[in-house]
Amino acid sequence: MQSASTWEARDRATAAARERFVAGSDGGELDVRPEILLSWRRCRDEYKIDPGQSRAPSADDYCDHSLKTDRVVTELGSVGRSLLEDVEALGGLVAITDGAARILTAWGDRQALRHGEQSNLAPWSAWSERATGTNGMGTALEFPDGILVRRCEHWCEGLQDWTCAGTTIRDPITGQALAVLDVSSWGKPLPDTILPWLRTAVEGVEAELREQALRDMSDLEEALGRRGRHAPGSMFALDAGGGVVAVNTGEAPGGMSGLTITTDCPALRESVRKGVTRARADHSWVGYVECFIPYVGDVVPFTIRPVVKNNRVIGALGTLGESAGEQLSLEARSTESSSRLPQRVTAVQGNRLIILNPQQIIFAEAERRVNCHLWWIPGPARQYPYQDDGKQRFGGLLSYYFAAICYIEAYAKLPVKMIKQVCDLR
Q1: 192 assigned to some structural domain
Q2: For labelling alongside 175, which of 110, 168, 243, 403 has CA 20 to 30 A away?
Q3: What b/e readout covers 353-364, taking b as 16+ CB neighbours within 10 angstroms?
Q4: Is residue 213 part of a domain?
Q5: Residue 129's domain is classified under what CATH number?
Q6: Distance between CA atoms of 99 and 64, rounded to whole angstroms?
Q7: Residue 413 is part of which domain span?
Q8: How many CB atoms lie under 10 A from the CB of residue 40?
C-alpha cells in the first residue's frame, strides 16, 4: 500500500490532467494511464457524459441474458462472500453486476455501504461507461484483465472519493460479458495487488466455463459426424458465437480452409449467432442466409440447423449450398460514418498511448489463429485482404480508408478477451 502523501500527490496530478482533458486536450501530453485516457475519450467524445455527474443513474429492468449468466452470477455470489472478510478489513464493499454493469448485489463494510447508497453504488443502478463514465465496473468491460480506477481517474466528479477494481467474466465461446466482480473503497486507496487477487478469485468460475465450452465443441463434432456424411453439400459444425469447430470437407478450390469460412465472412458469422438466438426460443427452428462467401467466391445459401444437448442450444450445423427454413436478412450497414476519415486514431502499445493521423497507418495484420474483428471505412478505391505465411494482411491507400482491429486472445481454440482497441479521436 502506498503512503498517503504518495497517493494524494498522484490524485492532484490526475485531477489536473482530467481538467485539461475536459477542457479539450487530446491527451497526448497528459501523464495518465493509457487505459484511463481511452476511457475518458469515450466518455467525453462518444457518450457525452457530464463530468460533473454526482451519482450513477438507476438501471432499466430489461433483461435478455441466458441461464448461463444466472449460473455465473450465482457462482460469483459464493466467490464474493468468500472475499467479504478481507474486503471489510479494507473498509470496502463487494459488488456483482451483470454483463451490462448493472449492480445486482453489494455487501461489505457498513460505512462503505452508506456511502455507496449516496453514490448509487448499490443494486438497481447502472455502472456502464455509457451511463456513469470511467469506473471499475463499466470500464472493466473494456479490458480483458480488469481495471483499477483510482479516485480522480473517475470521469464523474461525484465519484472521485471512490477507488474501484473490477474484473469481467466472459463467455469463452462468444466473448460476451456475463458478469463483473468489483471491490470498491470510499476515501481509502486499494492495494495495487487487488486486481491479481480478484483474477485469482474468479479462476474457478472461468475454468468451469472453459470446460463446458470444450464439452460443447466435442458434442458439435459428434453431431457433424452423424449428419455430415448425408449432407447435400459441405457441412460445418459451428459454436454459439458463429466460429467453426469442424468441417466435413477439405479446402475450397482457391486453397482456403473451411475452418475460416465465418472468420472471412462476418455477415455469415452474425447470421449464425442470430440463428442460435432464434433456436433458443424454438429448438425446431431452421433457417438460411444468402451472402457472398469468400470460401466459395460467390453468393450462395447457407442453412443453419441448431444442435441441442440436454435441452440447451450449444451451436449449429451449417450446410453450404442449401436453403431451408426461414430466410434471415442481412443487417444493413450504416454509411453515415464513411463520408469522412477520423482526425485521430489512438492505440495502446505496452504502457504507452499512441496518437496517429490515419494517413500514417500503412499496414495492419491479424494472426489467423485468433479471432479478430475488422472494420473498413471505404472510399473510392477498394483493396481486398490477402494471405501470406498463415496471417491475414491488409494493405491499402489509407488516404481512402483505414482499418481498426480488435485483437482477441485465445484460451486454446476459444476466443475470449479483447486485448487492444483502436479508437477514433474526433
Answers
A1: yes
A2: 403
A3: beeeebeebeeb
A4: no
A5: 3.30.450.40
A6: 11
A7: 336-425
A8: 25
Q: At residue 39, what are phi and psi to the nearest 5 degrees? A: -65, -45
Same-domain pairing of 20 and 147:
yes
One domain, residues 226 and 118: no
User: How far is it, in rounded angstroms, from Cα 48 to Cα 284?
Assistant: 44
Phi, psi of 344 (to 5 degrees): -135, 150
The rounded distance, in Å, linking the Cα atoms of 188 and 359 is: 45
How many Cβ atoms are within 10 Å of 82's Cβ, its own excluded?
11
Q: How many CA atoms lie within 13 A of 226 on its CB side?
A: 8
166 and 262 fall within a common domain: no
Last residue of a domain, one of 139, 174, 201: 201
Q: CB within 8 A of 325, min separation 6: which ones?
A: 285, 286, 287, 288, 303, 304
Residues 6+ apart with CB under 8 A from 49: 43, 130, 132, 133, 155, 156
Q: Of 327, 348, 373, which one is at a domain's C-terminal end?
A: 327
Evaluate if pTM is beyond 0.90. Answer: no
**Mean of the per-residue pLDDT values for the chain?**
81
pLDDT at 255 over 80: no
* CA 20 – CA 332 distance, rounded (Å): 39
Q: Look at residue 265 and tell me if it is in a domain.
A: yes
How many CB atoms neighbour CB 300 within 10 A?
A: 17
CA gap 239, 216 in Å, rounded: 8
What does the alpha-carbon distance between residue 372 and residue 367 come to, in Å, rounded to a whole number?
A: 8
Residues contacting residue 58 through CB under 8 Å, at least 6 positions apart: 120, 124, 125, 126
Rounded CA-CA distance 216/184 in Å is: 36
421 three-state secondary structure? coil
Q: What confidence tier does 366 reach under pLDDT thresholds 50, 70, 90? A: very low
Q: What is the CATH number of the domain that holds 322?
A: 3.30.450.20
Q: What's the pLDDT tens digit per position in 90-142?
A: 999 999 999 999 999 999 999 999 999 999 999 999 999 999 999 999 999 99
State the distance between the two ends of the chain, measured CA to CA, in whole angstroms.
38
What tens digit of pLDDT does each residue of 180-192 get? 999 999 999 999 9
Distance CA 75, CA 405 (A): 33
Q: Which alpha helices (H) appear in 23-164, and where do they start and end? A: 34-41, 67-89, 110-119, 129-132
